[in-house]
Amino acid sequence: MRVAVMGQGYVGITAATGLAVDGHQVIGVEQDGCRLAVLAAGRVPVYEPGLEELFSRAVDECGLVFRGSLLDVEGRLDAVVIAVGSPPGPGGAADLRQVENALAQVASLSPVPELIVTKTSIPPGTSAAWLARPGLAPLMRDRYVHNPEFLNQGTAIQDWREPDRVVAGLWNRELVPAVRELFAGCMSPWVVTSPTGAEMIKYMSNAYLATRISFANEMARACEAVGAQVDDVIEGMSHDTRIGRLFWRPGIGYGDSCLPKDVDALLRCADAHGFAMPLVEATRRVNQEQRGELVRRVCEAVSGVRRPRVAVLGLAYEPHSDDLRAAPSRDVIPELLSAGLEVRVWDPLIGRSAAQAQGVVDDQVHWQESFVAAVRGAHVTVVLTEYPELVNADWTALVPLLEQPRAVVDAKNCLVPEKIAVAGGRYRGFGRVSAEAEFVHRGDSPAVPAGRPGAGPARSLP
Ligand SMILES: NC(=O)c1ccc[n+]([C@@H]2O[C@H](COP(=O)([O-])OP(=O)(O)OC[C@H]3O[C@@H](n4cnc5c(N)ncnc54)[C@H](O)[C@@H]3O)[C@@H](O)[C@H]2O)c1
């Protein structure tokens, strides 16, 4: 098929690359001149493991090309895939201007392509509202498919090839063979529903995933209050196949580019449709509180220290993505600065100028070229991103580089508490209580059980 993919962000580049490698003739369309120039030079403007190689193959061997506007694409198209953004607008509602502009451009083509696919996340009811617009009605009724994207940054290529499911929301069932032909390279179960059903699948999936994380954080608070190890509790619960192992580690809370904005947009959608989602409201509130809780822990650790210094290790939410759009560092760093701490920052993936350009750090922050340099002479270290070099670092050697009280605040529960304790550091994770605390709460002897020196167990979490 001859396909244009509108929007060349994380989703659009992955889709354009995957479709080209699968044998379609693909034109990637990107309106941002800087991004377009990078793509036209044969490079990928975002960091995504493995994408650069596949992208080169798509360009060099499969004929993937780029244009600055859909209106510049010459010749007839069989399909247009819309993968433009739906960023948060005022009050948290999804800003649909990019996707509505894209649809208007598609509607102005002559001839209009047979298949118009939106991958962009759009709140429930959006497609139905477009169906009601006289200018869009025939296009929506006959040619439109909502195919929400579920990829995760860091595993985008694998998620493209083998998503857990492909969702096709359409009103015209005769489109199903064409959609299957377009996504023939995706080896997954299919769910065919209405566009509104497809929108609900996307937003409810993200709301549920967000709720699991907030539930884990609420559970971590309870563990600290009663003196239980959250790692043990999660391990014990995860063996229940109805609960499972994934997506519920306590810590700083969710902060990728999708969950925060989709949860907010769902809540605004609920307001607009006049129904309540108290669970999702609570999910959002618990998540927001985690940021403040982290800052509170840092401040508590350095109380009494004159001119306290904190080393923030990692700016991104995920260790394999340079996406900073909703990263917790955006909230945490300004709060640490306004609490009067000197803030040093290290991140191996994101350069200082990129972090500054995206408004995550400013001149008040001391940028460091290595985590060792950041830690040396700081009073407290915050591990904000689960970078492998931090997880695997020799913390028994790092901790002595800190000044007293040598505190390590682990925002991802990804370090081994014993290693910090053995080196004389004070570890604070989320829901990870010391072995002594477990015994005090049980009323037993405070002696540490054999094989469990210092703080509690730290096994790899799901
Ligand atoms: N990033 C993810 O991990 C992810 C995962 C699943 C779903 N999604 C959803 O997919 C959508 C896209 O996400 P993203 O992260 O790739 O977005 P993005 O903001 O990184 O990229 C969107 C791109 O579209 C371009 N664009 C906008 N209007 C255009 C037009 N008319 N013509 C050509 N280009 C245009 C923008 O310049 C931008 O480069 C969003 O709705 C998002 O919620 C994202």
Automatic annotation (TrEMBL):
<dbReference type="InterPro" id="IPR014027">
    <property type="entry name" value="UDP-Glc/GDP-Man_DH_C"/>
</dbReference>
<dbReference type="Pfam" id="PF00984">
    <property type="entry name" value="UDPG_MGDP_dh"/>
</dbReference>
<feature type="compositionally biased region" description="Low complexity">
    <location>
        <begin position="446"/>
        <end position="462"/>
    </location>
</feature>
<dbReference type="InterPro" id="IPR014026">
    <property type="entry name" value="UDP-Glc/GDP-Man_DH_dimer"/>
</dbReference>
<dbReference type="GO" id="GO:0051287">
    <property type="term" value="F:NAD binding"/>
</dbReference>
<feature type="domain" description="UDP-glucose/GDP-mannose dehydrogenase C-terminal">
    <location>
        <begin position="311"/>
        <end position="417"/>
    </location>
</feature>
<dbReference type="InterPro" id="IPR008927">
    <property type="entry name" value="6-PGluconate_DH-like_C_sf"/>
</dbReference>
<feature type="binding site">
    <location>
        <position position="255"/>
    </location>
    <ligand>
        <name>substrate</name>
    </ligand>
</feature>
<dbReference type="GO" id="GO:0003979">
    <property type="term" value="F:UDP-glucose 6-dehydrogenase activity"/>
</dbReference>
<feature type="region of interest" description="Disordered">
    <location>
        <begin position="443"/>
        <end position="462"/>
    </location>
</feature>
<protein>
    <recommendedName>
        <fullName>UDP-glucose 6-dehydrogenase</fullName>
        <ecNumber>1.1.1.22</ecNumber>
    </recommendedName>
</protein>
<dbReference type="InterPro" id="IPR001732">
    <property type="entry name" value="UDP-Glc/GDP-Man_DH_N"/>
</dbReference>
<feature type="binding site">
    <location>
        <position position="325"/>
    </location>
    <ligand>
        <name>NAD(+)</name>
    </ligand>
</feature>
<comment type="pathway">
    <text>Nucleotide-sugar biosynthesis; UDP-alpha-D-glucuronate biosynthesis; UDP-alpha-D-glucuronate from UDP-alpha-D-glucose: step 1/1.</text>
</comment>
<feature type="binding site">
    <location>
        <position position="202"/>
    </location>
    <ligand>
        <name>substrate</name>
    </ligand>
</feature>
<keyword id="KW-0560">Oxidoreductase</keyword>
<feature type="binding site">
    <location>
        <begin position="247"/>
        <end position="251"/>
    </location>
    <ligand>
        <name>substrate</name>
    </ligand>
</feature>
<feature type="binding site">
    <location>
        <position position="35"/>
    </location>
    <ligand>
        <name>NAD(+)</name>
    </ligand>
</feature>
<dbReference type="Pfam" id="PF03720">
    <property type="entry name" value="UDPG_MGDP_dh_C"/>
</dbReference>
<feature type="active site" description="Nucleophile">
    <location>
        <position position="258"/>
    </location>
</feature>
<dbReference type="InterPro" id="IPR036220">
    <property type="entry name" value="UDP-Glc/GDP-Man_DH_C_sf"/>
</dbReference>
<dbReference type="Pfam" id="PF03721">
    <property type="entry name" value="UDPG_MGDP_dh_N"/>
</dbReference>
<comment type="similarity">
    <text>Belongs to the UDP-glucose/GDP-mannose dehydrogenase family.</text>
</comment>
<feature type="binding site">
    <location>
        <position position="261"/>
    </location>
    <ligand>
        <name>NAD(+)</name>
    </ligand>
</feature>
<dbReference type="InterPro" id="IPR036291">
    <property type="entry name" value="NAD(P)-bd_dom_sf"/>
</dbReference>
<keyword id="KW-0520">NAD</keyword>
<dbReference type="GO" id="GO:0000271">
    <property type="term" value="P:polysaccharide biosynthetic process"/>
</dbReference>
<dbReference type="InterPro" id="IPR017476">
    <property type="entry name" value="UDP-Glc/GDP-Man"/>
</dbReference>
<dbReference type="GO" id="GO:0006065">
    <property type="term" value="P:UDP-glucuronate biosynthetic process"/>
</dbReference>
<dbReference type="InterPro" id="IPR028357">
    <property type="entry name" value="UDPglc_DH_bac"/>
</dbReference>
